[in-house]
Amino acid sequence: MTTLSDAYRNAPLLPHHIIPLDFDSVKHVPESHSWENSDSGLLIRIQPQPPESLPIIDLADPSALNLVGQACQTWGMFQVTNHGISSALLRDVEYETGRFFSLPAKEKTKALRSPGGASGYGVARITPFFNKFMWHEGFTIVESPVDHAREVWPHAYQRFCEVMEEYQKKMKELAERLLVLILKYLGLPGEPHDLHWLPHPTSDDPFRPASCTALQLNYYPSCPNPAQAMGLAPHTDSFLLTILHQVNGTHGGLEVLKDGAGWVRVVPTEGALLVNVGDMLRIMSNDLFPSVLHRVVVDKTRHRMSLAYFYGPPMDHRLSPILAGGAPVRFRPVTVREYIEMKAKNLDDALSRVRVRS
Ligand SMILES: O=C(O)CCC(=O)C(=O)O
Ligand SMILES: [Fe+2]
């Protein structure tokens, strides 16, 4: 079985594309992190639209299937309540995430991601595609964080690992529950034999192939001049679904590029989780669902944390559009592994490389 690390091994990163700035040590935004004069023009701040337009869906609502499907189609993003993740578990992951990021830089770098690795501490994986660095630190967990956590806390790593593993387990259940709804909405018939990695409604197959997942802990320190900085540059997520928990109450920081409306601020709803469509679901939906560009802006006085759980099919699964009603095929088949490798080398161009018709 191939793993996420195998897919990244062919696109190793340079050390300066892994080690974050020691944000505690700077009083001004250094040139390396100032997007103000960058030619990308990404920093244009468009007046945010009213936040209430992003759908909030109660998963206990009998019409959840249609509401989720429609939100995927119009926004590619929505918030969910009644998601089954306890507030105690959310508090625990927030605490453990904060415990890691509040360590001195020297301690955090003990968990540094290796150049060709998928997991560990480091800058955002999209960094090499931009000529400026982001106001961000990340910690990626693929399955168990134990190897890296043990480097940081040789005698106190267990709690961190237990909490992160429990959270991933619950996130996986939620992702699969959402995916079953979404695939039904797309008109997928009863028991598709090529999607046997999804849970069966009545019997659990112990030999079910492992889906490809990762948990990304994000930390955005407060910034002396937020207008110059970029928390996370615009990108789309690669996998089928991302489930995002935004920590720090309601002040937000995430913005989504909405067709015709510009950058719209996503204000977190207390207790809700945010779900967004990734490129792989865009492929499976034959372009019906957009995988939307999103970015993060930073704040002068408050740091922000978020936890993004990425869920995809097993690495060897061949993604191809589910066709209802004989629509023309928009994407050629591609394996999960091929797509992740393409994205690691081409970022925004990856999707156009599998597109056969626009
Ligand atoms: O921090 C956020 O709100 C967004 C994080 C994100 O987009 C990601 O990790 O891919
Ligand atoms: Fe993202």
From TrEMBL:
InterPro entries: DIOX_N, IPNS-like_FE2OG_OXY, IPNS-like_sf, Iron_ascorbate_oxido_reductase, Oxoglu/Fe-dep_dioxygenase_dom. Pfam families: 2OG-FeII_Oxy, DIOX_N. Residues 157-184 form a coiled coil. Residues 208-313 form the Fe2OG dioxygenase domain. It is an enzyme of class 1 (oxidoreductase). GO terms for biological process: gibberellin biosynthetic process. Its EC number is 1.14.11.15. Pathway: Plant hormone biosynthesis; gibberellin biosynthesis; Hormone biosynthesis. Its cofactor is L-ascorbate. GO terms for molecular function: gibberellin 3-beta-dioxygenase activity; metal ion binding. Keywords: Coiled coil, Dioxygenase, Iron, Metal-binding, Oxidoreductase. Belongs to the iron/ascorbate-dependent oxidoreductase family. GA3OX subfamily. This is gibberellin 3beta-dioxygenase. It comes from Trapa natans (Water chestnut).
